[in-house]
Amino acid sequence: MKAILVEQLGKFEHLQPKEVPDPAPKSDQVIVRIEAAGVNFADISSAMGKYPGIKVPYIGGREFAGTVEGTGERVMGYTQTGAFAEKIAVPRALVWPQPQGWTSVESAAFPVNFFTAYLVYWKAGLTKDAWEPAAPSKSSRRALIHAVAGGVGTAAVQVGRLLGIETIGTSSSDEKLDQVKKLGLNHGINYSREDYQQRVMDLTNGEGVDCVFEMLGGEHTKRSTRCTRDFGRVILYGTATGERPEFDTLTMYSKSVSVHGLWLSTLAGNREVIGTAWKTLAPWTKSGELKPQVGHVFPLAKVSEAFALMLGRKNYGKIILTV
Ligand SMILES: NC(=O)c1ccc[n+]([C@@H]2O[C@H](COP(=O)([O-])OP(=O)(O)OC[C@H]3O[C@@H](n4cnc5c(N)ncnc54)[C@H](OP(=O)(O)O)[C@@H]3O)[C@@H](O)[C@H]2O)c1
């Protein structure tokens, strides 16, 4: 079969489909014939050698949609590697039925973004099945979502809307913010000309937010902490700046703020957590209240163009590779 085989870390410009052996399924696995795969920031970090636990050679790609070999069932799925390929062998537990009426392009945009978005709210204590009771009762609950126009960001706006959460999002582009507002984003902040910390305080009468989707790292971790209200939670799930998170412990003490980590790669192995998240998300996909925002579609051979688009901050929503 053809696949994007990464043999050398540190660059991605040369990546092209190569002939590799077909996957051999283990006893708990099914083979999925992939029609589309989602591009994630983690795919770029991995190829650049900046993602933990990645060893070459490996086949890139963490999410996919297609049909189960033998049954023809239309599914979408999550994996650590192997989705940028014609076929993949994956555990049954990590594939879900494609929502009715969705194409494989739409379905491949679901697993990473929507599970991550839901689990951030869950970790922040803002869902019904929350990991811990939410902090003191509040009339309105608010989330600050960095990179709100991206894959996870656009998912977070939709899930937030369904959870009754007021959403504030950041982006480098007014055009992208206008697009996300159509999904229900309540307030957009263009960080290239506005100080998001100040603006969050202005928008919330000086109170701050309950939860921050923090995927930037560096100084943004401490600035995000300063955007929270008392008992707020900052959920760290990425470092797009490539910089180590910096902490403002004084703000953490004074507002009883906590900073949590979240990694779908390991949570995906926890059937209870993922199963509960799916139980909430599935009906919303069925009712049409959740819909992945596919901004760009490339053929598999143009994987490096897709990566460059995301790294250049030019993507809106999800980038999909068709196989
Ligand atoms: N922990 C987990 O399990 C998990 C799961 C999924 C994703 N993530 C993380 O979540 C983040 C978003 O992932 P995604 O796949 O959904 O990507 P994405 O948001 O679709 O694309 C990245 C966006 O980040 C923004 N950005 C801000 N600073 C950036 C920088 N220094 N370099 C590049 N982009 C920058 C850009 O949007 P603007 O120009 O609009 O700001 C860019 O379009 C990544 O950090 C990723 O690693 C983590």
Question: What would you note in describing this structure?
Answer:
- It is a single chain.
- The protein is an alpha/beta fold and 323 residues long.
- It has 2 domains: 140 residues, Quinone Oxidoreductase, Chain A, domain 1 (Alpha-Beta Complex); 152 residues, Rossmann fold, CATH 3.40.50.720.
- The protein is built from 11 helices and 16 strands.
- Strands 3, 5, 6, 7, 8, 15 and 16 form a 7-stranded mixed β-sheet that branches.
- Strand 15, helix 11 and strand 16 form a beta-alpha-beta unit.
- The longest helix has 16 residues.
- The radius of gyration is 19 Å and the shape is globular.
- The mean pLDDT is 95.
- The protein binds NADP nicotinamide-adenine-dinucleotide phosphate.
- The site of NADP nicotinamide-adenine-dinucleotide phosphate has 29 residues, from helix 1, helix 3, helix 4 and helix 11.
- NADP nicotinamide-adenine-dinucleotide phosphate (NAP) binds next to helix 1, helix 3, helix 4 and helix 11.
* Contiguous helical run count: 11
* CATH fold group of the largest domain: Rossmann fold
Low-confidence stretches: none
Structural class: alpha/beta
Write out the CATH superfamily name of the largest domain: NAD(P)-binding Rossmann-like Domain
Q: What's the Cα radius of gyration?
A: 19 Å
Query: N-to-C SSE series?
Result: EEEHEEEEEHHEHEHEHEHEHEHHEHE
